[in-house]
C-alpha cells in the first residue's frame, strides 16, 4: 500500500481529496501547512505527496525543494496542486523538484491517471535501486564465499587506519594442505571448503569485525579496538572452531585445519609493515607444523 500525503491549508479540499484517495486503497496522511508536511515526509516513508502551492509556514514549491534536499532512502513523487496555470509557474515548480503539476479545478479521473503514472515511476525507481544494490553487493563481495573481496577488505582497513585513535588487530589465515584437497577431491569440494571456512570465521567474529578473502585460500580478518594479545585470542578461537568442525561435503567427511599469523597495526610504521608481519607470522606457523597461531615478533 502506497503512503500518500495531502498537504493543503483548505480543510474541506483536504478532506475530500483524502476520502477519494482512501477509496483507491492509499494510506493517507494530512497536513495543513508546509512545515507539518515536511515533518511527515521525513518520518513516514511517504511515496506520493500532493502539495498545494500556497500554504502557511512553507509554500509548496519551497517544500518541494526541501524534500529534494533530504537524504531519504526512497523516492518521493511530488505533485504540485494549484490554481496557477501560467507556464512560468509550471516551470518554477518543476525546477524546484516537482514531478508533476495539476491545476485546480481538476477531475478525479485526471488525478487518478496522474497517481497511476506516479506509481509506475516509483516502481521503476525501486527496480533501479534494487539493481544498483545488487550490483554494489556483487562488487564488494567475493562471488564464491559471500565475504568481502580483497579490494573491499583492504578499503575497510585503510578507512580504519585513517582513525589514529583506533587500535587494529590483524589476522591472516591460510587453509592447511588446501592444494591437496583440490588435487584429491576436485575443485568443487575445494570451493565448498572455502565457503564453510568463511562461514566459521564470520560466526566467530564480532559484528564490528571484518573478514575478507585475501587470496586463493587466504583470509584477512580486521579487529577494530583490539590489541595484539586480544587478537591472538580471537585467532585461537577461529583455529579451534575450524579444527573441531567436521566438514560434510557430499559423501565426504573431512577434518581441516588452518594456520594463522597475528599482528597489530600500532606496532608498525604503516599498514604494509603490519600486513607483512602477519604474513611472516603465518609463514612461521606453516613452517613449524601447521594448525598453529603465531604472533608477529
| Distance, first to last CA | 61 Å
Based on CA atoms alone, the radius of gyration comes out at 29 Å
Which overall shape is indicated by the principal axes computed on the Cα atoms? elongated
What is the CATH homologous superfamily assignment of the largest domain?
A: Reverse transcriptase/Diguanylate cyclase domain
Q: CATH class of the largest domain, anyone?
A: Alpha Beta
Question: What is the N-to-C succession of helices and strands?
Answer: EHEHEHEHEHHEHHEEHEEEHE
Reported for the largest beta sheet, the result is: 5 strands, parallel
Tell how many strands the DSSP assignment holds: 12
Main-sheet strand order equals 2-1-3-4-5
Number of helices: 10
Level-2 CATH architecture of the largest domain:
2-Layer Sandwich
Q: Can you give the mean pLDDT?
A: 94
* CATH third-tier fold name of the largest domain: Alpha-Beta Plaits
What is the total domain count? 2
What proportion strand?
Answer: 15-25%
**Low-pLDDT sequence parts:** none
Amino acid at each position: 500500500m502506497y503512503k500518500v500525503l495531502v498537504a493543503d491549508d483548505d480543510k474541506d479540499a483536504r478532506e475530500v481529496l483524502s476520502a477519494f484517495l482512501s477509496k483507491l486503497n492509499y494510506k493517507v496522511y494530512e497536513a495543513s501547512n508546509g512545515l507539518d508536511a515536511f515533518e511527515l515526509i521525513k518520518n513516514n516513508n511517504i511515496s506520493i505527496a500532493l502539495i498545494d502551492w500556497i500554504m502557511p509556514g512553507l509554500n509548496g514549491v519551497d517544500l518541494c525543494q526541501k524534500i529534494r534536499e533530504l537524504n531519504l532512502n526512497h523516492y518521493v513523487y511530488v505533485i504540485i496542486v494549484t490554481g496557477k496555470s501560467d507556464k512560468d509557474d509550471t516551470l518554477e515548480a518543476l525546477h524546484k523538484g516537482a514531478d508533476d503539476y495539476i491545476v485546480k479545478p481538476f477531475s478525479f479521473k485526471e488525478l487518478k491517471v496522474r497517481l497511476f503514472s506516479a506509481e509506475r515511476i516509483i516502481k521503476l525507481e525501486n527496480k533501479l535501486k534494487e539493481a544498483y544494490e545488487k550490483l554494489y553487493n556483487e562488487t564488494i563481495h567475493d562471488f564464491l564465499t559471500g565475504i568481502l573481496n580483497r579490494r573491499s577488505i583492504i578499503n575497510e582497513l585503510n578507512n580504519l587506519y585513517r582513525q589514529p585513535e583506533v587500535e587494529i588487530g590483524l589476522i591472516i589465515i591460510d587453509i592447511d594442505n588446501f592444494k591437496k584437497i583440490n588435487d584429491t577431491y576436485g575443485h568443487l569440494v575445494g570451493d565448498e571448503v572455502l565457503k564453510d571456512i568463511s562461514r566459521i570465521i564470520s560466526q566467530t567474529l564480532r559484528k564490528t569485525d571484518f573478514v575478507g578473502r585475501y587470496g586463493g585460500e587466504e583470509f584477512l580478518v580486521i579487529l577494530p579496538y583490539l590489541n595484539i594479545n586480544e587478537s591472538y585470542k580471537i585467532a585461537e578461537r577461529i583455529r579451534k572452531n575450524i579444527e573441531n568442525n567436521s566438514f560434510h561435503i557430499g559423501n565426504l567427511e573431512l577434518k581441516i585445519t588452518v594456520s594463522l599469523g597475528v599482528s597489530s597495526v600500532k606496532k608498525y610504521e604503516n599498514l604494509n609493515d603490519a600486513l607483512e608481519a602477519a604474513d611472516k607470522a603465518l609463514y612461521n606457523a606453516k613452517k613449524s607444523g601447521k594448525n598453529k597461531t603465531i604472533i608477529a615478533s
